[in-house]
Amino acid sequence: MFGMIKNSLFGNSEETQYKVLSSETKDGVSFEVRRYDPAKYATISSEGRTYEQVIGELVRKLLKYIGGSNEQEEAMGTAFPIIITVFPRNDGVFSRRLVVGIRIPSIYQQSPPTPIDSAIRIEERPGMTVYALQFGGFAGESEYRAEALRLTRTLGETAPFQRKQYFCCSFDPPLKPYGRRNEVWFLQEEP
């Protein structure tokens, strides 16, 4: 546990790099269209429990992994954001299925340390284009849902994005008390 906290507070951190394709404002709501390159992620998933019941546990497991709880005992630093894939029902409420991922830091992309926790998987994710909406504060399910609804209304019904899932992103260590950055990402459907 101490390794996870030490790594989160004092370890190296990097933000996942991306290319801004456009910055737009519609009806007073500003968002970006971004392109992310393919990368390896450490992921963990859950089914059967609500977002609020399980998110802390899943994030802690990933932070322990990158903090040195791996076969090589390598504290890797942190690559933000932590990305939570959610699968909303028709009414917008999150289903009881989610996947939490954190990009493996750049210097470990070629050969990520092997997880000790069998629930953690190393996954190669393809490049993606997203609509990104940023907001502050501590974010839970209700805040992410509200911002996703705001982005949905801003983009409109004809925008080419996946509606069966989206990403809830946190760019800050869990213990950061203020100036927090969160985002909702909608995955653009490729033509």
Output the keywords.
3 helices, Multidrug-efflux Transporter 1 Regulator Bmrr, Chain A, two-stranded parallel sheet, 11 strands, alpha+beta, disordered N terminus, 191 residues
What is the strand and helix layout of this fold?
Elements lengths: L1 H9 L2 E3 L3 E8 L2 E8 L2 E9 L3 H16 L11 E3 L1 E7 L5 E10 L17 E5 L2 E8 L5 H15 L10 E5 L11 E6 L4
Parallel strand pairs: 1-5
Antiparallel strand pairs: 2-3, 3-9, 4-7, 4-8, 6-7, 6-10, 9-11, 10-11
In the CATH classification, which architecture applies? Answer: Alpha-Beta Barrel
Category from helices, strands and their pairing:
alpha+beta
Give the tally of structural domains. Answer: 1
Main beta sheet: strand number and arrangement?
9 strands, antiparallel
Helix-strand pattern: HEEEEHEEEEEHEE
Helix tally equals 3
The coarse silhouette is globular
**What is the CATH T-level topology?**
Multidrug-efflux Transporter 1 Regulator Bmrr, Chain A
Low-confidence stretches: 1-10
* Terminal-residue CA separation: 45 Å
Under CATH at level 1, the class stands as Alpha Beta
Task: Give the overall average pLDDT.
Answer: 91
Strand content: 35-45%
How many strands?
11
Helix content: 10-25%
Strands of the widest sheet, in order across it, are 2-3-9-11-10-6-7-4-8
Rg over CA atoms: 16 Å
| CATH superfamily (homologous) name | Regulatory factor, effector binding domain
